[in-house]
Amino acid sequence: MSILPYLLCAFVFGCGLFGIVTSRNVIHMVVCVSVCQSATYILLLAIGYKNHGTAPVYADIPSSRVVTDPIVQSLTLTDIVVAVAVSAVLLAFALKAYEHHGSLDPAEMTGLKG
Q1: pTM recorded for the entire structure
Q2: What is the third-level CATH fold of 4-112?
Q3: What percent of the chain has pLDDT over 90?
């Protein structure tokens, strides 16, 4: 197994985290959160990968054949669904913040300062 997928995962997560920290727009923050979440797809698929593994369909293959892990694949699909739901909620919050404050810049949202 190579370390490259894990390095790619760390790089993608770092890019998303950098975007979150330096963002001056709420919509940009939502996109950067989605980038951070996509790093988890890479991580899950890297964990479940097996060299020369076939699809996890057990109907017509011998039991000695190497197959990929179907649990990791289903977790990845679940992660995609959760990411879509999180993005939808965050975009709804951004829309309400824009309606209330008239700006998408977090620094201009004075009602949020404590």
Answers
A1: 0.81
A2: Helix Hairpins (1.10.287)
A3: 54
